[in-house]
Amino acid sequence: MAAKQHGGEFDVLIVGAGLSGIAAAAHLTMQCPGKSYAVIEQRADMGGTWDLFRYPGIRSDSDMHTLGYRFKPWTEVKAIADGPAIHKYVHETADEYGITPNIRFRHRVLGADWSTDKACWTVTARREEDGAEVQFTANFLFMCAGYYDYDQGYRPEFPQEASYTGRIIHPQHWPEDLDYSGKKVVVIGSGATAVTIVPVMAETAEKVYMLQRTPTYMVSRPAKDWLANSMRAVLPEMMAYKITRWRNIIMQRFAYNMARKKPEKMSKRLLEMARKMLPADYPNFEKDFQPPYTPWEQRLCLVPDADMFNAISDGKAEIVTDHIDHFTPTGIKLKSGRELDADIVVSATGLNLVMMGKTNLSIDGKATAPHEHVSYKGMMFNDIPNMASVFGYVNASWTLKTDIVADYVCRLLKTMDVKGVQIANPHLADADMPRLPWVDDFSSGYFARSFDKLPKNGDRHPWRVLQDYQAEKKILTEEPIEDGIMLFSKAGQMVKPVEVAAEPMLEAAE
Q: d(Cα 88, Cα 489) in Å, to the nearest integer?
């Protein structure tokens, strides 16, 4: 077996060069300029989701004033941005902060082992061009690898699909040579991906069916934020951006809280809005548009400029609420007996959720896994030292979490320097604390399929994931780093006291 090559020694190693990884590197550059770092990325380009996904219409499902970085204003006219525009934004950020030379592209992380004696992580990666294994060492590991498996989307096996003579594709791996003009297309699914693909394909396809088992809540919103664009014309760029960003954060949280406190009222309102977007004689509205769950048990599907509703109204697209019985040579036979003819079937059936890019973790040579640990302040894990991970919000824009986690990591690194220590370990002293689901009251399929793989929640602060940006912003940017739970020590001397008093939950988290 060939010897592992050495990739370098760093203060911080960032895994992933998507939206989160580039943000983490930018924050380190701004807040900890003396720290050396490298970014390990398995793909040949940065951007993560916005480099991987190439399906028709690929776009954000939230506004770019909150999905964008706190420190870099979004200046494009469209707030609901397409994939190429977001990809460009990530590249601009990397160039502006000198990040690009620090990225090790085409390195797939295989494992990370923490050494207490050396107070460092040894990260093993496979270099894709020649298969060589490369080892990097760093005092701190910052996981920014996203939340889903980049290699394979979720794709169930359909009965008798082998008999189908057309083409079945998954949006995660969209073929460049796919020509759907003049074709009949069935898109299986009702989530954000399906709602994005259908109206774009309908522009040139003969007919597009969105085949769903159950509906999802759809809400139309202008792709352009006229108030943000107006403010940018008269105010300094950063000021206009901050105002728009906080307005949208507050609006998002208000809508979410209303959905949780008054679900029936919110459901009625969303359905009324959807009904107004469709022809007055639309048949089976309740069957096609009324979900069997309350708002925000799953993410709402954003429809920019009513494009999905317009495609349905124009007859170019049709929602079919039914179950698949089996595939036929020319399409799909449904449980109702109806058959949908299809030249192309798009299986927009979701993602496979994974933690930390499928990295195999070990502590002093002993294997461990995320589901064996409890979340500390929503970004570290009990008794895994010197490691933070970004996992964004299910009820708001992902990048909101990235900025404040990076703030905390920079504060932690500075505290360690001041104290002259090399190890920071969030220790859970209460072995009997209940282990609760990582995210509750959220029923999307990719979560339901993966609960057993996710870290656990505790029943008190700071062992709770709050899904509340404003509360977590206060926790991560204002609460003292030295809280009696984060334990500091020097190399070879990781401290674990017998007992640490638990703190009550914050009011903001309730």
A: 42
pLDDT of 497 over the 80 cut: no
What span, in angstroms and rounded, lies between the C-alpha atoms of 451 and 315?
Answer: 40
Question: Which residues lie across from 210 on neighbouring strands?
Answer: 187, 319
> 3-class DSSP state for residue 168?
strand
Residue 485's alpha-carbon distances to 424, 459, 480, 502, in angstroms, are: 10, 15, 11, 9
pLDDT tens, residue by residue, 103-140: 999 999 999 999 999 999 999 999 999 999 999 999 99
DSSP category for residue 213 = S
**110 CB-near residues (< 8 Å, 6+ apart):** 124, 125, 126, 133, 359, 360
Phi, psi of 444 (to 5 degrees): -55, 145
**Residue listed under structure tokens 């959720």:** 353
The reply to whether 198 and 56 lie within a common domain is no
Q: Which of the listed residues 301, 332, 347 is the one where a domain comes to its end?
A: 347
Which pLDDT tens digit goes with each residue over 266-313? 999 999 999 999 999 999 999 999 999 999 888 889 999 999 999 999
Does this model's pTM top 0.70? My answer is yes
More confident residue, 26 or 466: 26
**One domain for residues 65 and 173:** no
SS (HEC) of 129-141? CCCCEEEEEEEEE
How many separate domains does the chain show? Answer: 2
Distance (Å, whole) CA 405 – CA 427: 19
Residue 156 lies in a domain: no
Distance CA 494, CA 95 (A): 38
Q: β-strand 120-127 against 133-143: which pairing, if any? A: antiparallel
Nearest alpha carbon to residue 50 among 89, 86, 100: 86
pLDDT at 500 over 60: no
Q: What's the CA gap between 299 and 394, in Å, rounded?
A: 7
